[in-house]
């Protein structure tokens, strides 16, 4: 899918990656602190999420060879499978959370809510996928191939997931709760990042198009909004557990699916199935 990436290129990529993103995340944290969340969200989607792509270009990584064709006709099954897997993870985790904490559930399936969900699953998913492309070019397109070649497929993906999670650290410190609670919430977040990183990379390898993990990234962020639609307004949720995809319930489901997909990939590799 692309040429071998040198260690020096990856070092430059990571330097640019963190150097561009972390100051931007601190600016986002400032706007969140002064209750200007809309501005923070716009900056996140338009600036920070494109930092990995910009870093890849600045590091002169082989961006042209990461697979730019959509391949909707030939790989639609992989797009669908990725969508189903991610929806199962996010919504499955939310269902478990609301089963444990039913007092946090605000279930009102009226036409307005139905329209919100439809918009999330269609227009919003596609829009966020464009922002997701900014991240996926750098992570799955450049960093993961290097790490897999250097450390092996599974170990490389785990290391990649850890780096991906660490990159989000300033954002993880934003929000409600004590500093101790925010650090505690890093546990399920890191499990989630490693697991989703594996899932997105597996579908990237299967499809050989960077648009598929970008689409999957968009699905994660978009479907997560559905959990907020069904959460009682103003309630203090147990973020460590859910109901969003960064909670422990969704993270464990993601881990199970990541392990299953990895084993399936190994079987297919042995059988010579692409």
Could you explain how this protein is built, in words?
The chain is an all-alpha fold. The chain has one domain (69-271). The protein has eleven helices and no strands. The chain has helices at residues 7-33, 37-46, 51-58, 76-100, 111-151, 153-167, 169-172, 179-184, 186-207, 211-229, 248-271. The longest helix is centred in the middle third of the chain and has 41 residues, at 111-151. The two termini are 13 Å apart.
In short:
By secondary structure, the chain is mainly α.
Residue share in helix: over 70%
Low-confidence stretches: none
Average pLDDT level: 90
C-alpha Rg, in Å? Answer: 18 Å
Tertiary shape: globular
SS strand fraction: under 5%
Overall structural domain count: 1
Number of alpha- plus pi-helical segments: 11
| H and E string | HHHHHHHHHHH
User: Helix/strand/pairing class, anyone?
Assistant: mainly alpha
**How far apart, in Å, are the first and last alpha carbons?**
13 Å
Largest sheet: none
> Would you count the extended β strands for me?
0
